Amino acid sequence: MFRRKQYALLQEWKTRSNGRTAVLVEGARRVGKTTLVEAFVSNEYAKSLVVDFSQTSDDVRNLFLDHANDIDTLLRMLQLYHEIELPVRNSAIVFDEVQRFPPAREMIKHLVADGRYDYLETGSLISIKKNVENIVIPSEEERVALRPFDFEEYLWATGHEMLSDEIRRCYETLTPLPDAVHAQAMRLFDEYLVVGGMPQAVAAFAEDATFVECDRRKRLILALYFDDIAKFGGGDSRKALAILKGIPGQLSAQSKRYRFSSLQKGLRYEDYESAMHWLEDSHIVNVCHLCSDPNVGFRLSEVDSRLKCYMVDTGLLVSLAFDEGEESLRIQRALQFGKLSINRGMLVENVVAQQLRARSHTLHYYSWEEPPEHADARKPRNREIDFLLSKGFSNASGKLRVCPVEVKSSKRYSTVSLDDFRERWPKRVGDEVVLHPKQLKIEGPRNYLPLYMAHCL
């Protein structure tokens, strides 16, 4: 199993909960939920029992239906069926793919109250909401979101633990890496842009260091998503597919804002709203909303209809965007080495959104218009901050301030939006962050950080 950060969250849950709650590990298909949970219960408990509702027999399902009011009999019969004896308070029972059998999830309340064992669930939200309409969601259920690898986890998976430790140390001390090590880190970050963070794709690339099998596995995952949308999307399936397939084109535009009218003339966000929420709940996309009044508490001024839509994994975005048959592999190699004249900015912004979501940040941006620079100029000057975070500001005794984050994909750029943003909101803005391909440097409250430090924010 690859090292995952959520393993530590499960350890914290086990110690804190001490059997008083269950935990649901949720996320998109193929992000490694089952692998993580099975490794956790194997390492942290004396015994464990896994019920996989994607393939278990009707006999097992009927145990839950026939003994819903008799926990003693249910637990005894489960152990008899799986030929295992579970020691009390040192065993875990896993309900894998629990969305396939909602009655088991509804019983979590009573199983937790029984107190003999710890309970873990895994579920893909791509179908979980459709299947819970007639059950009571247990209040004793905590949730842990599992997402694709961030860049730090990618470094762990590909044998660069020492480099990952050094990157974090340099971020915490705000000191640059040596130039040669910086170049190596940027090369690996460019590699990560193409490979992405889906465990199967990373495993394939780690095995042969080529994009052939890696790309094949990514395309299988995309095909799985398309099939699941058609199967579980209901009345929103056609619109959800159109949104997903339209992401590369939308991100390649200058504003990157999702324009729903481009999918079908005359239609607006309101016509696609439920489909977009479905994709977001399924963890297939990361949605970034406009914040109309940038201040701590971004949701207070969130504008639902003005949004950017990123793929949950940048490697999947690459395979979705460059579907050119046999030429796709050449394109991906050229992309890694910077030999392809495309809008690299769409990939870099997507991968930063991926890092921020892995850190549980909500995604918000801010855009506005500055007046024309000259009296005879007609057009206002458009400005935009890519992401807004809330962070303690060292110059204000650690009080929360707005931290604007600008993402730069090339070494030549301007920071006019950041300059005007601080001038516009001087009392609200704290530290500023520019993520760029160059070395780390500090200029007053502005931190210029290499792109490979995005996961540290």
Topology record:
Layout (H helix, E strand, L loop, with lengths): L5 H12 L4 E6 L5 H12 L2 E6 L5 H9 L4 H12 L8 E6 L5 H5 L1 H7 L3 E7 H4 L12 E5 L5 H7 L3 H13 L5 H17 L3 H10 L3 H21 L4 H16 L16 H13 L3 E7 L10 E10 L2 H8 L5 H10 L7 H15 L5 E7 L10 E5 L1 E6 L7 E8 L8 H9 L7 E5 L4 E3 L2 E5 L7
Parallel strand pairs: 1-4, 1-5, 2-3, 3-4, 6-8, 11-12, 12-14
Antiparallel strand pairs: 6-7, 8-9, 10-11, 13-14
Mean pLDDT: 92
Distance between the termini: 26 Å
Q: What percentage of amino acids are in beta strands?
A: 15-25%
Total number of helices: 18
Helix content: 40-55%
Largest sheet: 5 strands, parallel
Low-confidence stretches: none
DSSP, total strands: 14
Estimated structural class: alpha/beta
Largest sheet strand order: 2-3-4-1-5
Q: Any idea what the radius of gyration is? A: 24 Å
- Count of discrete domains: 2
Task: Write up this protein.
By secondary structure, the protein is of the alpha/beta class. It starts with 5 loop residues before the first helix and ends in a 7-residue tail after the last strand. The longest helix has 21 residues, at 212-232. Helix 10 packs across helix 15 (314-321) and helix 10 (179-195) runs antiparallel to helix 16. The chain folds into 2 domains: 6-145, P-loop containing nucleotide triphosphate hydrolases (Rossmann fold, 3-Layer(aba) Sandwich), CATH 3.40.50.300; 149-457, no CATH class. The radius of gyration is 24 Å and the shape is globular. It contains 18 helices and 14 strands. Helix content is 44%, strand content 19%. It has a 5-stranded parallel β-sheet with strand order 2-3-4-1-5, sandwiched between helices.
